[in-house]
Amino acid sequence: MKRVFPLLLAGLLATPCGWVLAAAGTDPIYDELEQEKSVYNVYKAYFPSLDVARKAAISFHANLLESDYAGGFLVLQLDEREMAQLRRFGFRFEQATEFIQRRNRALSEFQIERTRRLRGAAEPLSIPGYSCYETVEETFAAGDTLVAAQPTLASWATAGSSWLKAQGQGGYDIKVLKLTNGAVQPAVGDKPRLFVNSAIHAREYTTAPLTLAFARWLVDGYGVDADATWILDHHEVHLMFHANPDGRKRAEAGLSWRKNVDNNFCANTNTRGVDLNRNFSFEWNSTGGQGSSGSACSLTFRGPTPASEPETQAVEAYVRSLWPDRRGPGVNDAAPADTSGIHIDIHSYSELVLWPWGATSTPAPNGPALQTLGRRFAFFNGYQPTQSIGLYPTDGTSDGPSYGELGVAAYTFELGTSFFQSCSVYENTVKPRNLPALIYAAKVVRTPYLTPAGPDVLTPVLSGGGAAVVAGTAVTLGATATDMRFNNSNGVESTQAIAAAEFTVDVPPWDAAAVPRPLVAADGSFDSSTELLSGTLPTFGLSTGRHLVYLRARDVGGSWGPVSAVFLDIGGQPLAVTEVESNDTLASAQAVATLPAVVQGGFEAATRMASRADSDVYRAGLPPGRTLAATLSPGASTRASLELLDAAGQRLGYSAPGTGQASTAGITNTTADTMTVYVKAVYLGGAFGSFPGRYTLTLGQ
After folding, report:
1. Could you give the residue ranges of the DSSP H alpha helices within 281-411?
2. Among 127, 136, 152, 229, fewest CB within 10 Å belongs to which?
């Protein structure tokens, strides 16, 4: 399938050309667009194999303009040195004449739009020709809206300044939107933190809009989507939408702008500035010139010194503020397996999921765990998961401070198939495939080197379609657990059978206060890498309102996978019943009008117990298909039994545990009519002279 640079604002081609000429010399952006038309060192680079092409897309990403994998070529902007590098791997070249013509028509259309604005036309509300992409100002305004609507969930932080702002020439704050429920604090330590930055390369249109879509999913989903709710309750998400806002404004005008706008380097040209993703301190210029350029006009110019640019300084400082250093000083020192945190740098394009190292082909010390999570991400977006080394290394990249210094799991997503991706492809492919990958990152950020090895729990559902139930009503819980969701297009991730599954209510399973309850395999045995799960959720004691049910599964290797959640709504409390004597026989049984119910009762006085045992009998109607679950909880020094009987006195269920222990029994009505069930509590013994006598009988349905 051919990937093409889009034609922009086609309807404006009929605009009188005099409008275009009117802007020449009066608008710097107009003149920069004209400069870009004069770039002719653009070639079809025919590759020898698809694998080599993918690696070239990593190493020569700054040069990549278009890809036609089916046609066997990439379109690259190259100088003679770069062409010589590619020839060593079997590439051959011809000038990309058709691409240059299409590019120049598109640039002319942007010039027409510039002229319209110069003549008083309204400022566009989005990038001209790309209504799905917010401008820098629109992005920040959208963040303001989220903060205003949910101030307990969203807040702004300022990480630093853009180059223009640092020079006092306008520019922008480098802002970060922090998302978490401030009303929920962990019992110990800090919440796990996910950091996502985007648009560090200005022309990569899809990156900031995807990050903004993620923010909206989280905030708008709070209280509506169970996963969005628990993520914000228990984790933090930090989003730097625009790591290079000055450059982004150039790209919004139609320029193929990559670097920042630092005019100290290659001054007053379209290739001025520093490549921020070669300017980070860790391993800056560590590959002898292979992984970045020392030439100021190069698209991969690394800058004069490590972290010389204010944008880079902002990212580095923010990263170091989020996480402690858990990796040793040696290049082969691995971070501990329980290290928390994930850093994702969103780029376009090439359809890749990348992880360290990029400066060497040697795997990172946490390489196997990085690979496992990378293959999880690539399951969602369908991209190729691979270490971020191509035909040549890269150095001074954004994963340096996060993984290289601190040991935090770090990834680069290369979205889609074009820098100027069409809205239709973005809306229908890029966003729906990558949003789930970001959600998965937010789920596993607590232990990203451990949790992705475990199985996923999918589509948890409650009986009754999620409708509110009265506390005490037995609720059936169902889900699917699977260990199969990896992208194995580049190597194979091992999968294992499911060994166990559990759920907790209101308290997440990692909390010491959690009370896990088992889920069972629907077919009766955990013996497959995908299992249907089922379980019964007791609801006695739950308050009226909305509750979170957390589910997770474990494989035979001992790895617990990420949590998935579902809401449980309690619409009322069980019927409160007080025992009325005498109710010792079926004939004198006390009626319980509705289920569920909680009965407060007592056996007769201790003096009578010496002569005969006391028994209390209750009767209730059980509709067809429903289950009665009864629990008798006696005093600490009392021993009692629980019986379920039919109208003829035949025993349907029985339990007689030790002193002070609760009895449980249940019966399901398999008939077509409502049946009467008798519940009998029987005193069996207790400490003489200190008989407490009281009990609680819960009757759930």
Report:
1. 310-322, 367-381, 399
2. 152
